[in-house]
Design brief:
By secondary structure, the protein is an alpha+beta fold.
């Protein structure tokens, strides 16, 4: 993503709003002998450090230029060097930095940049983020939620929020019925983060929000509880009507082959039967217990959420890929496949992964 053309575009935009900027020197310094060996985050840092080197030593003045540059460049991740500039050099200029992040977050999200301010001055930063929840710009409202997630991917942990999420919840409460899907996704992800350390708190919030019977709020709750549902938390399952599945059976679980090569696919099929005299709401999943370097680990995969009428039977045919991925490497050995209904394992079978 960060090519010489991107560096050139940044250089041209900065030069327009900061005439004394040495654009040629900046480009030459960025595209030095180390450039081709730099990975993504290293390139972002390298560009940002050179912006600082070739711009005014007056950081508030530089931040005003950053705001204008953001408006001149196409929106997208390629602008992330601008929030990174605020992250690296704006900490001692709190008010100017807050203004700049609010201004440029629509061009390229400031969710990572604001983490440093939350760690340094959490109360002051959260107070401003709370005000942002009423902003007319969805990107600013989304930053209010995304920036304070307890466990933000790429952004590191916000330890204070992990220990005490209540100040974060105050922000989420104000966004719980936001009309923007972009904002609602962030609110749900924030609550999902909180649920990993404070499940009962999130369930209390979920119950209260569901009582409002607002379609936007209900959508947030369902997405927010995804980890608790995947972990078969009884209260989360009950909240969505997934009751005791004692009358729902899994029969004829069969593997096409009982071994699968790394890089291949495990094919399986089974029957799901509702033996009850009434309809049943079903959350159907399969679990695979993998062999890994340290022992075993189980992953949950959702098949369907559905309602089965009395005495209904459905056939399912599925497969699971055993191709290696960056997030999961496969190892030979004895594995297990299980079928789960409403958090209860109903049938399981062993199989072997081979090289």
């Amino acid at each position: 993503m960060f090519t010489p053309n991107v560096v050139k575009a940044i250089s041209v935009a900065v030069k327009e709003y900061y005439p004394s900027f040495d654009a040629t020197g900046f480009e030459k310094s960025v595209l030095d002998d180390t450039w081709s060996d730099l990975e993504l985050k290293a390139r972002i840092a390298h560009i940002t450090q050179n912006l600082r080197r070739f711009m005014s030593n007056n950081v508030p003045e530089a931040l005003k230029v950053i705001e204008k540059v953001s408006k001149a460049l196409p929106s997208g991740f390629e602008q992330i060097t601008l929030p990174t500039f605020v992250e690296f050099y704006g900490l001692e200029h709190f008010e100017d930095s807050m203004r700049t992040m609010k201004s440029i977050t629509a061009g390229s999200t400031c969710e990572f940049a604001i983490r440093q301010f939350l760690k340094a001055q959490p109360t002051k930063t959260l107070a401003i983020m709370k005000k942002w929840t009423s902003d007319k710009n969805e990107h600013v409202r989304r930053l209010a939620s995304e920036g304070c997630r307890p466990r933000l991917p790429w952004g590191g942990n916000f330890q204070l929020a992990i220990e005490n999420p209540n100040p974060i919840v105050e922000i989420l409460e104000l966004l719980r019925a936001d009309e923007s899907l972009y904002v609602r996704k962030s609110v749900a992800n924030n609550l999902n983060d909180i649920s990993k350390d404070h499940p009962e708190l999130v369930l209390e919030i979920a119950e209260r929000w569901l009582e409002e019977d607002n379609k936007h709020t209900t959508w947030i709750v369902k997405k927010a509880l995804r980890s608790l549902l995947k972990n078969a938390h009884p209260r989360a399952l009950e909240l969505f009507g997934y009751g005791n599945p004692n009358q729902v059976l899994i029969e004829a679980l069969k593997l096409i082959k009982h071994d699968v090569k790394i890089g291949g696919k495990l094919h399986f099929k089974f029957e799901c039967i509702n033996n009850s005299i009434r309809s049943e709401k079903i959350r159907l999943e399969y679990l695979i217990t993998y062999v890994n370097k340290t022992g075993q680990a189980t992953k949950v995969f959702q098949i369907s959420e559905m309602e089965m009428v009395a005495k209904e039977s459905r056939t399912f045919k599925k497969y699971q890929s055993f191709a290696d991925m960056s997030t999961r490497k496969h190892h030979p050995g004895e594995h297990k496949l299980a079928i789960r209904i409403n958090g209860v394992i109903k049938s399981e079978v062993n199989f072997t992964v081979i090289k």
